[in-house]
Recover the amino acids of this structure.
């Protein structure tokens, strides 16, 4: 069946390549980006492969995320797969109203978007969270914006573990027959813009990451995978950081995210 697949951060790197592959398999792809010109260029590039739409939003602004969700709810009767792919590691603007931008873009924005459009995903839909092999225990104070002393890698690794943890929490709260939640490390040090800027290296073929996203989106059939973490470095479902295996820890992370969204430290 032709699926409607929404991919955030799809104007370059893994997201763009995954979009192309999904279109070539005759799926309807909705790409998200924050730059209008890049989105226009991508639509021109991708439209030759199939049906593609675009949505613009700055995921570092939660009001923009809310607006994005409203557009999706208005324009689509269903979303079969949501791939939360957008992310940031190194930036010159590390804080967004006191909260580190890595937490905002990598953790809070995808959670908010997912929650808002969950009604469209509630009939066997799938949420795929693009995480990382880099994971570190989450400083709840930093997630809430009460502590701002994290360096780039600390903030990134914590934000990606927090993403895995809310994915795990959601999988325990929602029947997998309704919505499946997955987290994935698409591959370490792939040749994305993020890796090139952060580490100054060429990186490995981005198709490594794009291929696993396609597989998890449309080929992995089992409903028993909800809440699991797939590591593409080892090509298997495996255990993430031990904190994500503790339901109380996951609940605490989700409570902090909900506090932020409700206006605790961020509007």
């Amino acid at each position: 069946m032709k699926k409607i697949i929404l991919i955030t951060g799809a104007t370059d790197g893994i997201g763009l390549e995954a979009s192309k592959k999904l279109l070539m398999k005759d799926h309807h792809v909705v790409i998200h980006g924050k730059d209008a010109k890049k989105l226009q260029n991508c639509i021109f590039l991708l439209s030759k492969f199939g049906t593609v739409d675009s949505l613009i939003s700055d995921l570092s602004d939660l009001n923009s995320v809310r607006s994005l969700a409203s557009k999706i709810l208005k324009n689509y009767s269903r979303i079969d797969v949501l791939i939360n792919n957008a992310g940031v590691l190194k930036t010159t603007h590390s804080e967004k109203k006191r909260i580190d931008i890595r937490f905002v873009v990598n953790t809070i924005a995808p959670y908010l978007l997912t929650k808002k459009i969950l009604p469209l995903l509630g009939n066997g839909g799938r949420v795929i969270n693009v995480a990382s092999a880099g994971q570190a225990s989450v400083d709840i104070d930093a997630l809430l914006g009460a502590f701002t002393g994290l360096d780039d890698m600390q903030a990134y690794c914590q934000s990606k573990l927090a993403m895995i943890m809310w994915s795990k929490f959601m999988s325990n709260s929602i029947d997998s027959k309704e919505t499946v939640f997955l987290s994935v490390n698409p591959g370490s040090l792939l040749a994305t813009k993020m890796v090139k800027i952060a580490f100054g290296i060429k990186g490995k073929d981005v198709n490594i990451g794009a291929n696993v996203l396609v597989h998890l989106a449309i080929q992995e059939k089992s409903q028993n995978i909800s809440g699991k973490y797939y590591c593409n470095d080892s090509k298997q479902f495996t255990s993430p950081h031990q904190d994500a295996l503790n339901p109380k820890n996951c609940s605490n992370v989700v409570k902090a995210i909900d506090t932020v969204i409700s206006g605790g430290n961020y509007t």
